[in-house]
Amino acid sequence: MIKILANDGIHTDGILLLEEAGFEVHTEKIPQDQLGKKLNKYDAICVRSATKVRKDLIDLCPNLKVIARGGVGLDNIDVDYAVEKGIKVYNTPAASSKSVAELTFAHIFSLARGLHISNRELPRGADFKELKKQLSKGFEVRGRTIGIIGLGRIGQETARIAVALGMQVIPVDLIVDEAQVDIELYKPSEVKLNLKLETVRMKEMLSKADIISIHVPFKGGKAILGTEEIGQMKDGVILINTARGGAIDEDALANGIATGKVRAAGIDVFMNEPSPREDFLNHPNISVTPHIGASTDEAQARIGMELAEKIIDHFGAL
Ligand code: NAD
User: Fold this and answer.
1) Would the pTM of this model clear 0.85, i.e. be above it?
2) What are 113-129's pLDDT values in tens digits?
3) 125 C-alpha vs ligand 1 centroid, how far in Å?
4) Whole-angstrom Cα distance, residue 204 to residue 107?
5) Among the atoms of ligand 1, which is closest to the Cα of residue 269?
6) Active-site residue 244, yes or no?
7) pLDDT tens digits along 236-255
8) CB 258 within 8 A of CB 280
9) Domains of the chain (ranges plus CATH)?
10) How is 165-207 classified by DSSP, letter by letter?
11) Which end of the chain has less Cβ packing within 10 Å, N or C?
12) 79-90 burial string, b = 16+ CB within 10 Å, else e?
């Protein structure tokens, strides 16, 4: 029987699908330092970001045939080495796009009305009337212009929500020139809106957007948005990073907020995860979440099902 180790967990829908197809699934976590001894009993390992599958572990597991990553990033896996050793590597790039786009808007709405401040300050005993006064300068999202950097899967989902909210969307992308964005109204309505979005140059977007959200891969190096780019933005711009820590330079962001150039920021991903810089954590102009872009039941169910389908396709139903 084919044995699968889901070392960072897998949604029950995925487990059911695998078990129905005749696979044995183990979900008890094996600590990283013991994987070398135990992983070779398995034919496949499913991971999220926590478990690392590096060259030394791969060398200890000649029986391993599949590494399946729930999510997009493959930075915790030595993919080239695995492939060289004949191990197939799968991921689920599309499964969490809607959830990440919705989190982007959770931050935008929070910053628009100061929800993050209310949720911190009211339980601390803040004066109700004082807080009401402090939060009296909220803004409506409808009618605002959002710049989207990266018109891929998540960027397009973000655009879809923005358009439906009555925002103007100006996307930027290295490769994509235009994208057709469908907006399906909630059933039983059959109405479907279709919109063509054309990308513009970064400089144009930076000078026009009220809110800028990043949705590109980032593996370190020069930030996508640093001091120079922030300098070209409108005064009082709002920045959202749900992509990867450092895609917005954190020092440049802190400085932009200190000078008032940047009104506020929503951050799901940090340079120093899991210990983000302290000055961001309690900052009234920063809404923070602990890298939860894909952490919805729907996304995890889609990830689990997609991984299960890929593993079943790989080995064939038993
Ligand atoms: P994607 O590959 O579908 O789209 C990325 C787009 O960005 C592509 O169209 C590409 O051409 C464009 N691009 C790349 N570099 C660029 C640059 N420098 N300037 C402008 N455009 C550029 O990726 P996706 O599925 O939309 O995911 C985007 C990123 O979101 C992922 O790489 C990942 O880092 C992040 N993500 C975060 C979470 C989370 O939990 N917060 C979850 C999933 C994905």
Assistant:
1) yes
2) 999 999 999 999 999 99
3) 40
4) 24
5) 41
6) yes
7) 999 999 999 999 999 999 99
8) no
9) 3-95+297-315 (3.40.50.720), 97-288 (3.40.50.720)
10) TT-EEEEE-SS--EEEEEEEPSTT---EEEEEEE---HHHHHH
11) N
12) beebeeeebebb
